Amino acid sequence: MDRRNFFKTVGGGMLASGTILGVPGIVQPEKVYGSSKGMKLTYEVKKLQLRNTWTIARNSSNFKNNVFVKLEKDGIIGIGEAAPNIRYNESTESTIDTIKKAIPIFNNANPNDFVELGYEIKKICKDQTAAKCALDIALMDWVGKSYQLPLHKLWGLNPKKGPLTSFSIGIDKPKVVIQKTKDAEPYKILKVKLGKGDDEGMIKAVRSVAPNKPIRVDINEGWTDKEKAIKKIEWLVKNGVEFVEQPMPSSMLKETRWLRDRSPIPLIADEAVKNAHDIPKLAEAYDGINIKIMKSAGLQEALRMIWIAKSLNLKIMIGCMIASSVSISAAAQLSSLIDYADLDGNLLISNDPFLGVKVIDGRLVLNDKFGIGVNEI
Ligand code: MG
Predict the structure, then answer these.
(1) What is the pTM of this model?
(2) What pLDDT sits at residue 22?
């Protein structure tokens, strides 16, 4: 029996066991094996409308213009998304410019060399990680679809082991915060944004309607005085806060280490960490890291970050930007490896163009669809 007929015999969706090309337990189907090259890369901007004005210590917004990409080859389409963030000098325009630079790379690429191709994408320019993330999500979505496996299965991860996800409450007037907290009733953990002034007022408003719910807080680099910061943390601990995300500017590593030595609850790095390279130096000042695929330039680097963080005994959180189900479902593929999930970006928008991972009883529930598991509505 030749190779093609062997695969026909084992059946359309079934794969024989074995190891080929470094993927344990999987023999690649004939149609994706070989050296054929060339992927078509297209992009499109979609305006995502926020349910409420979104305010954090840094800025406010009512909508986000995210850039969606499609990678096509052999009738299979991989989908990706970029959520550009001004904090990292990204805009819709700079994202599109970066994606355009990748067109010739993909026109000559074999997607089965996805690890090498991932590194090629990272080399396009120094930063612009949201654009590179869109390309990596689309590439891995294509790979999963061509192997006929959800990505979490391709990576050997148990989809039932993911943690509860938190729901974020942005900075606002007490009346609005109370309403947002009531609306967040189905979610079992809240992440409250602080660092822009009346931190106590924000927590008091949340606690007035959710007296016992676990709360995490995100300062978004908003505290710049370490003595005041430790007093705020002590007050937050009395109000049942579990951990503090990015209390001080990422550049204030020495002050953050001082704070960490005195804080009774964990400090989690967010803006201070983008990729695997950043992690070792943070281990002395933080107890954990918030990995976001938009910062890491995609799923492949996020996976490398998880292994490094685990080796340094750091807690691992997966967070997100304001984004559609494409980004959230992609990041959720890694959720069984992490301690804390904050994957609610798609829940904060009112016109999600895609369907993917669901939140049921506060928990991320992955589906069995191939790749990142999303469909366009
Ligand atoms: Mg954060």
Answers:
(1) 0.86
(2) 37
